[in-house]
């Protein structure tokens, strides 16, 4: 059993104001008699009555000594200063973002003449055709099937139309500049020697002379300043995918009337 002073310390720490022991506690202060009497409104429970009948001495309740808290000065840490947001002048428009430079396209084209047709054909190797090149032999077969001379002649000095023009420098050599250059060369050549139809063989010829894409293969085009044209797949593409020749032949039969009115 513990002593009275230690018991009170425990009760104060547990914030117990009043309590009633079940047994007589040694060294406890005598209980007050009025605390052991039941209330008038209702009877005491059986357990409380039994406890009241026992010779139990209730502990006297003494008020706890009030504790005085001495305020301690607190040191306030300075708050970090918020960074001021940059002032944006609404009257000044934002600077437009510069678009990334577009790499210049690379291609080589050859302008030939076969009867009443001009042929702008892509050079697969970048060099002029040789007599035994497979691509040139296929071109001769196409011209022969169209009823045109199968030995096309070079136009002008025979130099290929290559792009880009310069390997260095600040000259604009993007797709738009390439298109203007190709169309300008063709317009100068066809002005001196007009043709009934301009063949565009290969994607670079279709894109930079006819301003179209691969969806225009085997279709007729009307190019401003150049007249009627016919878009064909490239010679290497025809050799790699022979099934394209059937659709080309069907389109040729419809367009052949431009250079052979009697057909």
Task: Name the CATH architecture of the largest domain.
Answer: 3-Layer(aba) Sandwich
Q: How many β-strands, per DSSP?
A: 7
Task: Give the SSE order as H and E letters.
Answer: HHEEHEEHEHEEHH
Distance between the termini: 130 Å
Q: Tell me the overall shape.
A: rod-shaped
Question: Which CATH class of the largest domain applies here?
Answer: Alpha Beta
Radius of gyration computed on alpha carbons: 53 Å
Label the structural class. Answer: alpha/beta
What helical percentage do the residues reach?
Answer: 25-40%
Named CATH topology of the largest domain: Uracil-DNA Glycosylase, subunit E
Fourth-level CATH superfamily of the largest domain: Uracil-DNA glycosylase-like domain
Mean model confidence by pLDDT:
79
Main sheet specs = 7 strands, mixed
Count of helical segments?
7
Percent of residues in beta strands: 5-15%
What's the number of domains?
A: 2
Pick out the low-confidence regions. 46-54
């Amino acid at each position: 059993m513990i002593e009275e002073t230690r018991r009170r310390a425990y009760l104060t720490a547990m914030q117990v104001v009043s309590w009633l022991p079940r047994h007589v506690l040694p060294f406890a202060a005598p209980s007050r008699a009025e605390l052991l009497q039941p209330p008038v409104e209702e009877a005491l429970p059986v357990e409380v009555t039994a406890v009241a009948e026992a010779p139990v001495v209730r502990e006297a309740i003494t008020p706890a000594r009030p504790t005085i808290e001495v305020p301690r000065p607190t040191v306030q840490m300075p708050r970090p200063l918020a960074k001021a947001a940059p002032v944006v002048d609404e009257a000044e428009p934002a600077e437009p973002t510069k678009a990334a430079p577009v790499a210049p396209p690379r291609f080589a084209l050859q302008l030939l003449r076969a009867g009443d047709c001009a042929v702008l054909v892509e050079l697969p190797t970048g060099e002029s055709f040789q007599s035994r090149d497979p691509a040139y032999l296929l071109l001769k077969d196409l011209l022969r099937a169209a009823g045109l001379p199968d030995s096309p002649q070079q136009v002008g000095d025979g130099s290929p139309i290559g792009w880009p023009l310069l390997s260095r420098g600040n000259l604009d050599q993007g797709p738009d500049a390439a298109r203007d250059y190709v169309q300008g060369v063709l317009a100068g050549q066809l002005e001196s020697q007009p043709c009934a139809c301009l063949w565009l063989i290969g994607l670079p010829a279709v894109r930079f002379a006819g301003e179209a894409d691969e969806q225009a293969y085997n279709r007729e085009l009307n190019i401003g300043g150049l007249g009627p044209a016919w878009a064909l797949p490239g010679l290497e593409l025809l050799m790699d995918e022979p099934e394209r020749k059937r659709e080309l032949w069907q389109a040729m039969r419809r367009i052949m009337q431009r250079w052979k009115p009697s057909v």
